[in-house]
Design brief:
Keywords: Decarboxylase, Flavoprotein, FMN, Ligase, Lyase, Magnesium, Metal-binding, Multifunctional enzyme. By secondary structure, the chain is α/β, with parallel strands linked by helices. It is built from five helices and twelve strands. Strands 5-4-1-6-9-10-11-12 form an eight-stranded mixed beta sheet, with helices on both faces. Bound molecules: ligand PMT. The site of ligand PMT has 26 residues, from helix 1, helix 3 and strand 9.
Length: 223
């Protein structure tokens, strides 16, 4: 791909799910495999970028050459992003962050007792929103959106609300899209522009996303 040259850029990618502890042996999580984020990290590296990969717990090989920052909870992921975003030109948030965590994590294993058990959940920090609030003019912030209805309308709203430059909207209702599979179906949204991509490998989609990030980054340089 002769159009893609990320040399000299530091790109931070978040990948995978977060794990929110209930007690020392249990947690709440989601189906993210990390494949989308890892594809982005390895392609960015291949095209010359310095790559920070902030990853929730996944079963994937760490791409050789990335700076790897393993995290578990959303709070840990936020701390890692707070560390790396100010030093990056581009941040791509492919992680599936848990919106809620357990308010009081039990210090020992919760015993089976009553017929019902209630867990109180509290909101997690919104990492993408934090990154949008702390974005410098020349930085490019790329979010993801996972929706099951009104995909593009909700995605556009998300893009504005979180001050993203780009948003990758996954169509979860389509076969071969979203979690776990090696393929995805997505639309890349810019302000006033959109690119709807057909079913393809997460590696090929990663290249489209990186090209879009590069284009916006170059635009910002000349503004
Ligand atoms: O990992 P794979 O199995 O390959 O699957 C890829 C994927 C489907 C997980 C990925 O492509 C994807 O869509 N990731 C984002 C999923 C998601 O959390 O979507 P959302 O609409 O809930 O969140 C929107 C954006 O806000 C995301 O960029 C997310 O990282 C971010 N977010 C959400 C909640 C939160 N507390 N903090 C955040 O930063």
């Amino acid at each position: 791909d002769k159009d893609l040259n990320l040399t000299g850029l530091t790109i931070t990618v978040t990948a995978g799910p977060t794990q929110e502890a209930i007690d020392p042996v249990r947690f709440i999580t989601n189906h993210s495999s990390g494949k989308m984020g890892y594809a982005l990290a390895s392609k960015a590296l291949q095209y010359g970028a310095e790559v920070n990969l902030i990853s929730g717990p996944v079963n994937l090989e760490i791409p050789a050459g990335v700076n790897y920052f393993p995290v578990k909870s959303a709070q840990e992921m936020l701390a890692a992003v707070q560390d790396k975003w100010p030093l990056s030109q581009i941040l791509i948030k492919a992680a599936a962050v848990a919106d809620y965590r357990v308010e009081n994590i039990a210090s020992s294993k919760i015993k089976k007792q009553a017929e019902t058990l209630t867990l109180k959940l509290v909101k997690n920090p919104d990492i993408l929103k934090w990154a949008g609030e702390h974005k410098q003019k020349e930085q490019v912030l790329c979010g993801f959106a996972m929706e099951t209805e009104n995909l593009l309308t909700n995605a556009r709203q998300k893009m504005q609300a979180k001050n993203c430059d780009l948003l990758v909207a996954n169509d979860l209702t389509t076969k071969g899209a979203g979690f776990a599979a090696s393929t995805n179906v997505a639309t890349i949204l810019w302000p006033g522009k959109e690119l709807s991509l057909p079913l393809q490998s997460k590696e090929d989609l990663a290249l489209h996303i990186l090209r879009a990030c590069q284009e916006l980054y170059r635009q910002k340089q000349t503004e």
